Amino acid sequence: MDTTGATARPRFQVTIEDSGNRFACAEGLPVLKAMTALGGGGIPSGCHGGGCGVCKVRVLEGAYRTAAMSRDHVSPEEEAGGVALACRLYPASDIRLRVLGRMRKAVAARRYGFV
Amino acid sequence: MGVMRIGHVDLRVLDIDEALNHYVNILGMIETDRDAAGNVYLKGWDEWDQYSLILNPSDRAGMNSIAYKVEKDSDLDDFEKRIADWGIAVENVPAGTLHNCGRAIRFDLPSGHEMYLFAEKKFVGKSVGAINPDPWPEDIKGAGVHWLDHALLMCELNPEKGINKVEETTRFLREVLDFYLAEQVTAGPNGEIQAATWLFRTTTPHDIALVGGPRPGLHHLAFFLDEWNDVLKAADTMGRKGVKIDVTPQRHGITRGCTIYFFDPSGNRNETFAGLGYLAQPDMPPITWTEDQLWRGIFYHVGEEAGSFTSVYT
Ligand code: FES
Ligand SMILES: [Fe+2]
Fold it and tell me: What's the pTM?
């Protein structure tokens, strides 16, 4: 089955400003899903449900809509200013965005087990 | 007497219809009630109390509270005193505060998670009944989870600031609520930091687990399946339905469970957990995993962090 829904729908170009990475996102598909389905990177990928906040981005240019996003991670003011969670972000035109979220992965060795 | 088992989790969800589709059609839980506030109550087919999961429509994800069921009403009085004596504020709440439950006591664990103890909840029975039952019901949906098995709570751990809520909460659960320690992870230069624990009241290795992290939260809720093949089939269903899987089917070293980690549509992590692990008993010596082997404890085969285990939770 086509879980990406990528067939025969308008496709928009998503550009990640930080890296210059570009990928196509079919209408009706969240940006994060489109990116991970193509094996791409650049936006941290977590719960894909708008709950964890790691995929936070700022849309710099372009039209889009969003599904429900946790208020723990996107305030109404941020939302009004173009901040969104990429897993709940559906482009309606080509868009350009900047990554705000951070994956708290071990950059340096962990000192106490999990932290 | 004392705490019997996990009773229910009150979970925040961003979209109630998406959440219901997930917990009913993909996990196979059964909707048993709704209230005026819009909360929906669900149980597994093998559970007899009215609900083990409350879906609470909210503008954020995560857990509101967790409840454990005690055997006798008088246990509530005993625990109320012991909790207060330990130095934690405890409140006696009347019947009906917890939907269709008798009176309860409410308090915050040292980790900050809100907990209830209750002795009575409305009985509805297993789907297969109690007279000459079939081994499983015919109309199972999706993974067909049996019951809510346990929850893993993230607790603040910051040894440099002298904060170890894993150790503090573990001590509270053992000394006050009579939980037993099945397994632990030790970390730090001399292994002096208790970084994670798995505790039980039933005869399985854990009814609650605590892992140290930067902030408190819900790591996952786990639902019980019989065995490995059920785990594989559950993952097939998730693949078919496009559920976001965090870690594909594999084995935990700790507790020996067969597992899948995945997310509900609001980003709350779930687990389907198969197998009873081993017989856990009060006199069983606790198992220790050292820091150098801790990822083999979590994911036995690869022995490395998989998915977003430590970096993502609600
Ligand atoms: S991946 Fe968790 S909020 Fe987007
Ligand atoms: Fe678990």
Answer: 0.95
